[in-house]
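Hey,
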Amino acid sequence: MLRIDLLESSSVEEHLGVRVDNKLTTNQQQALVAKKANGILGCIKRSVASRSREVLLPLYSALVRPHLQYCVQFWAPQLKKGKELLERVQWRATKMTGGLEHLSHEERLTELGLFSLEKRRLRGDLRNAYKDLKGGCQEDGARLFPVLPSNTTRGNGHKLKHRKFHLNMKNFFTLRVAEH
């Protein structure tokens, strides 16, 4: 007997815990991450009586933020809606901290010594690009980030060349980094 196993088609693939749909968007990943992080934040709110920053800040940093940043260089939100979805989790965490309710979100972040998630993503992008260019993967980094010849830049020979893609991938890692 001939047995035929057919592959199932799927509109979403998950690799290393990151979901990507057939249009190469990560909207489902963003929603899943926000749901997990909000769930953990809810558990913290229900189970921890103290609202002091000495208690809540380490819990947020250790239990919630890692979910918001896992593989974020790959699935960084492209649209404002996705960025706000993730930022709302951090907004909720800072709002839980006692004594800061009267401050705006930006003032709460400053008071707690935190950066916005978007700024943390940018810093992570730049750090990873630097590692690729100067670290152990110089050959791969040079292919990912072509550098302009030093005679075309003023003062420094490390200006990255902007590349164009035919796909609608405006927020691809190499494009985000080259802009900055």
